[in-house]
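Researcher: Please predict.
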Amino acid sequence: MKSELHVPSDLNFLVIVENWLLGCLKVQLGDSVDWSRQSSRLRLALVEAYSNAVRHAHKDKPNLPILLRLELKNRTLAIEIWDYGDGFDMSTYYPPNPTDKQEGGYGWLIMNRLMDNVEYRLKVNGANCLKLEATLPEFLT
């Protein structure tokens, strides 16, 4: 199953983004997933990625849309978040140290803890792509 969503660079669309993701997955997987456990982690990872694109990549370009792509093969989920900002040089990223009381920089850490794989590709055909991957365990009742 594949799905795409073109959404404005506006945090008011967060609910639509979350509902799109979970709605697509629930239609495809039904009750075979423990949604009480999985929906929170998936929503948080997607909200972090989308809000970063809005607040950072498109900060000076609010008229540019963000493209979200979802692919589900068996129980393996891949979510791509495409933006048209300047991009982020990952070599300059250092995980935050909580004792430093740093305000930002936790998004990458959060996404990596919630998902099985996180990768960022800079300037692919003029856009940046953040890819989040996870395997959804089967819910055994």
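Model: The chain has a mean pLDDT of 91.
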